[in-house]
Amino acid sequence: MSGRWPDRSVRRPLSLQRWEDLTFLHWPLPAATVQDRLPPGLAVDTFDGQAWVGVTPFRMHARPSLGPAVPHLSTFTEINLRTYVRGPDGSDGIWFFSLECPRLPVVLALRAAGVPYVWADAGMRADPGHVHYRSRRRSGVAMHAGVRPGEPVEPDALTDFLTGRWSAYVRRLGRLWRIDVEHEPWPLLTARAGAAVGQLVAAAGLPPLTGEPLVHFSPGVRARIAAPVPVGGGSTRPAGRR
Which of 72, 79, 198, 242 has the most beta carbons within 10 angstroms of its beta carbon? Predict the structure, then answer.
């Protein structure tokens, strides 16, 4: 279940990662609209009847659990476009519409595993009191966001729903797979942001996002990423919270 603490222990991680200077940008959308963009077997997860779409930019540091980091490939800016779902196994988690990454070998390897990475010129700059993210694909699809972190915040139910996710689903070889993650609770700050993400959202086939985003910032966490496990079929009826 979504929440502040992981619901599964990742005892044999496939990858060890560190996510730094991460911003959660979230907008609500009608549940039916998001459901139409999900693969068979996944149901959109809602809070008070609304689905949520998020853009999450951050600095990634990754290495295999049984070996050293690969120079040049282990650190990069990632920007993912996501929503929240329930799988046919009853678990909740994340569905990624896309993940921007500037390292082509990483993109090719993870696309082969079913993770929808996209090769893009993605980068970020973290200055005192301000973080700026930007990305541009070879097709011209671009985004940018400027974020000013604020004060520590105690998560409420909606914040836990949006940030406390402990699995992601991918589709590969005609079936769904679940990837579990374990990390300490997010240290979260309030934040203000100016973001232009319309091209990223349109490229995923989603309608325009309106209004100001709900913003949270985190200095980061260390994460343990499990190997994918297959999950069975099931209903795609939207699942709601509250």
Answer: 79
